[in-house]
Fold Probable transaldolase.
Amino acid sequence: MKLFIDTANVDEIRRAADMGILSGVTTNPSLVAKEGRDFVQVLKEIVEIVDGPISAEVVSLDAEGMVKEALPLSEIHPNIVIKIPMTAEGLKAVHQLAKRGIRTNVTLIFSANQALLAARAGASFVSPFIGRLDDISMDGVELIADIAQIFDIHGIETEIIAASIRHPMHVTAAAKAGAHIATCPFSVLDQMIKHPLTDRGIERFLADWNKMSQK
Ligand code: E4P
């Protein structure tokens, strides 16, 4: 399973990219608004840092508006993927963009049927939201497993991005359930690095080393 970072913060993207762990980036309107910066400028900076799919979301609700927003975004760089909400208008936009060779990531997926529809419309990626399902006492990881099974049985090549990841256990569970990608906030990537036994091990090695060098 590949790892993407779910943020529009360029410093976080750079810090994660420097560790060599990133295969792509996802953004959404909330994450972009949080940064308070020009969206196009942010995307231009991101494509220079990460060589992989960079999702940029449209905010129009009708297919025509979505396609109109998507075209200039897709011209920023070949790695830009247009993120489209899972609606009937969204599916129309995905279909039109696929015919033009523009890759899409269908977002706000909460059922296996939504994922199947998005894939059939021509989406390159689908983003089931694990955390938001868990929030309403539904099993987000089970949804990933269902979609992975359906795509596998029917030879569907659309990639599954496990989204709305809240903690490291979501990442492990998504990988076991068959997600191709997990898109994680920087804080989760950071938590994944750490283990108390690693810290204790380093302390002990250094203490032993220092004892030896004092002899
Ligand atoms: C996915 O691409 C979304 O940006 C994201 O994962 C949403 O996560 P949230 O539920 O934490 O807002």
Q: What stands out?
A: The first helix runs from residue 10 to 18. The chain is about 55% helix and 15% strand.
